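Private note to self, pasted from the team thread so I don't lose it. Backbone tokens:
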């Protein structure tokens, strides 16, 4: 099994020490999203399917904070350390991380965090994020999706919620594992991992050019505004 070379257990203290108002804000936004989605159409997915739980699952910083708060509340210090050391940084293939919340016994119960899962996991298999398998994707109103998305990614003045990486770059959207590294402040180590593995689908904003990009292994930028959706994440 390939793993990111990063000492996740060493950053627990840095990442769990959050101002209470930050966690309250993240939990409030997640609750508002759950309200928006409460009447969404039922899935037609086979119960044991976890097809959409692979390939670096992206989330906002707000979702990351809210999930982290849940983990901190529900897990003992040892369990949290276990999760970080055993489940974070697992590469399914070059440039793609395994979701740390995908149950190892996948056919029995696929998500260990189902009630707290990110927005993208809630709309997979609907028209907002259609499944390519042979199932019917229930209609999900685009306006509701963007209402939820905006609550998680933007503040009222239109600025996005992210983490600065350098003077000109900020992390906008990332898998949980990548958020933990950025959140710990170990930016040089994160940028070295991006050079080696690519950004693992994470999206970074060049705040000078106001352009969003991912990084390919070796460091080449892949600007999202220059791609069509089929080639967005190789
Ligand atoms: S959070 Fe849960 S539903 Fe989402 S990708 Fe991970 S295991 Fe799947």
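Design output:
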């Amino acid at each position: 099994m390939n793993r990111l070379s990063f000492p996740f257990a060493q950053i627990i203290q840095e990442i769990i020490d959050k101002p209470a108002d930050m966690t309250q804000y993240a939990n409030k936004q997640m609750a508002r999203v759950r309200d928006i989605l409460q009447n969404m159409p039922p899935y037609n997915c086979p119960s044991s399917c976890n097809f959409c739980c692979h390939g670096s699952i992206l989330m906002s910083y707000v979702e990351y904070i809210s999930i982290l708060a849940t983990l901190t509340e529900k897990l003992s210090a040892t369990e949290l350390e276990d999760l970080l050391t055993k489940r974070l940084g697992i590469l399914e293939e070059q440039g793609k991380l395994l979701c740390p919340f995908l149950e190892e016994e996948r056919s029995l119960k696929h998500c260990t965090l189902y009630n707290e899962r990110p927005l993208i996991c809630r709309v997979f298999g609907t028209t907002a994020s259609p499944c390519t398998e042979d199932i019917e994707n229930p209609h999900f109103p685009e306006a509701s999706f963007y209402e939820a998305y905006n609550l998680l990614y933007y503040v009222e003045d239109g600025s996005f919620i992210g983490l600065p990486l350098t003077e000109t770059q900020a992390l906008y959207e990332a898998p949980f594992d990548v958020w933990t590294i950025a959140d710990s402040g170990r930016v040089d180590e994160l940028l070295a991992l991006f050079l080696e593995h690519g950004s693992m689908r994470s999206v970074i904003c060049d705040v000078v050019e106001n352009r969003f990009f991912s990084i390919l292994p070796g460091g080449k930028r892949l600007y999202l505004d220059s791609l069509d959706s089929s080639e967005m994440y190789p």
